[in-house]
Amino acid sequence: MTDKTIAVIGGGAIGGITAAYLSQAGYDVELVVKHQDKADQVINKGLHITGVRGEHDIKLKAVAEVEQLSGKKDIVMIVTKAYDMPDAARRVLPFLKEDAVVVSMQNGICVEALGEIVGAERSVGCVIGWGSTMLPDGTLHMTSEGDFVIGGQLPKNDVTWLKEVLDHMMETRISDNIIADLYSKMIVNSCITSLGVLSGLYLGQIMKFKRAREIFISIISEAVAVANAMKLHVEPYGGKLDYYSLIKGEGAMSDFRRHTMIRIIGFKYRRLKSSSLQSLQRGKPTEVDYYNGYIAKKGAELGVKTPVNARIVKMIKEIEAGNRTIDPNNFEDAGLEG
Q: What are the strands of the beta sheet with 140-144, ordered from one edge?
């Protein structure tokens, strides 16, 4: 199986760590990073990786541009921001073997758009269930273990062999309905990531606000209503966060249960900082179109009202344009009352 040739497009924390460990397992891996000096560093000094698996410097092949890849690949993993995925997919087309697969490793649901470019028969969705971050000095820090969840866009796609490859890096599960698994994580991102952009706070700080928890619940309620219209049963996120149970019931006791559950999540991941907030602080746009924007778009197509998700998209676009300040007071916006 290690005769498979692999390209990983994106040298951030997830892409870099995945490429490094697959290379260490004996695979022929090329990592595409954005700059030549970074590529030279990966080749000559290696990626510096720290965290739950210890400290390593792992050298591997790297190039600065997709067009510099050496030959055709069996597997291409696109580990870019969601809005950069289509361009990467188009550029990698000449480097795909006839039976190659292309894996979408973005947050949000991008596998459908990927299929339109590379062909649905070779597009694979992937949920990343482990944590990492890039430190200011470029170190790739692995914050937690977890899993990959993969699935082909077409039911007939056999991704068993891809699982065998990814198992060398992280335990991998094959999903019967990858859209449902991706949707499950997208709901979490629509809550945590977007509320972090609006407020500028860590998750633990956000969840202390009753108003923020109410918005959290509204986002989930709208997302579940859209999923129902899509005839999509959303799996519990991480096998634990059951959205249907969370929003079930009315009255004071049900509200107390919901708020308690959300506060527990907030405490457990209290030091979590929104990835989209970090993007904004680096001068990059957010991925809100692929989170709350996906829910609002699907809702509009299916006749399901999603006022809170639609309002969040508009507010974050205002922040990106410099017309709104990042501030916890954004939670009091009248449009977020649901």
A: 56-58, 47-51, 140-144, 131-134
329 and 319 in contact (C-beta within 8 Å)?
A: no
Place of tokens 């990858």: 178
Same domain, 33 and 55: yes
> What are residue 58's phi and psi, to 5 degrees?
-115, 115
- 216 with 153, same domain: the answer is no
CB of 108 closer than 8 Å to CB of 85: no
Rg (CA), the chain: 20
Let me know whether 226 and 297 are in one domain: yes
Give the position of tokens 């900082």.
Answer: 273
The domain boundary, picked from 124, 143, 176, lies at 176
What are 93's two structure tokens? 């087309």
The confidence band for 143, taking pLDDT boundaries of 50, 70 and 90, is: confident
CATH classification of the domain holding 40: 3.40.50.720
Burial class (CB in 10 A: 0-12, 13-18, 19+), 246: buried
Model-level pTM?
A: 0.89
**Could you tell me the residue range of the domain that residue 202 belongs to?**
180-336
pLDDT tens, 36-68?
999 999 999 999 999 999 999 999 999 999 999
Q: How many residues does the chain have?
A: 338
Pairing of strands 148-152, 123-128: antiparallel
